[in-house]
Amino acid sequence: MAASTKAKSKLAAIVDDLVSLDVVTFSGNLIVDLTAITVKGKGTINFQDVMKNIKGVVDKDESSFTAIAATHIALDKDTVQFVKKGLTEDEERLYRLHLEAVSAAVSARSAMIASLMQIAGLKG
Description:
With about 120 residues, the protein is of the alpha+beta class. The protein has one domain (about 15-120). It has helices spanning about 5-20, 45-55, 90-120, and strands at about 20-30, 40, 45, 65-75, 80-85. Strand 4 (about 65-75) and strand 5 (about 80-85) form a beta hairpin.
């Protein structure tokens, strides 16, 4: 792949990520093979690999998830939100944490976009 095509692809992925925001909160048991996410020779967890390495593992072990809440916010602020029906007391606490995570993500995204606009000279 030519460098310019690769750069365009990366830019498209960044723009795609910037135009929407997704937060999903799960509850359940997740079994992860620590050897797949541990930095060899250091014994520390590479957190960038955690999500990448649990994909596909769920069907092979005793992991199970239940979505408590999912929020999708588009660039124009159109929002779609799912909340599990009949939340237990523990799940209600998780839902409150979900709302806090959404709020934090929206604030962080806004700050990042403002910084990028300033860097690009689009905002004084």
